[in-house]
Design brief:
Blueprint: E1 6-10, H1 16-27, E2 31-35, H2 42-55, E3 60-63, H3 68-76, E4 81-85, H4 87-96, H5 101-114, E5 119-125, H6 136-155, E6 158-163, E7 166-171
Parallel strand pairs: 1-5, 1-6, 2-3, 2-4, 4-5
Antiparallel strand pairs: 6-7
Length: 179
Amino acid sequence: MMTRHCLILGGARSGKTAFAEKVALHSGARAAYLATADILDGEMRERVSSHQVSRGNRFTTIEEPLELSHAILKAGATHDVVLVDCLTLWLTNLLIANEDVATAVGELCATLMEFRQAKIILVSNEVGLGIVPDNAMARTFRDLAGSTHQRLAEVCEDVYFIAAGLPLTMKGEAPAETA
């Protein structure tokens, strides 16, 4: 049976990470949590710490802010499922580092299409549902996130949108019981 990759979208504090963790733990015995956060301040440090405490020892945590495709391949070689949280932080990291976002997203899509040894679950913030940002950088970020989500939704077999902790199946199979 083919390994089905999954894209999980939602707003801030929508429950997308909790849902992704349930899907991951239901999908395999050896789960990796690939964190893209680059800790730049105390508030972010507290958020990361809170996430780590809530995960406990159910996941192997891997931190990689930029080289996502490489990290997925490496983690997938020794894990059944790799949960990537989150793509919007990864995009931010790429922009700050002046990396070519289109090339990095293309590489990620190619990795997902070719790599089937482990289930890959991608979590990302849907930022295009609000008002048009008032500055060019924020508009660029919103546009890049939107185009990234579209490209990944094409290559992932399952796509969910989370609101109020509830999943809406946008593409693929309804989620297995994750309670």
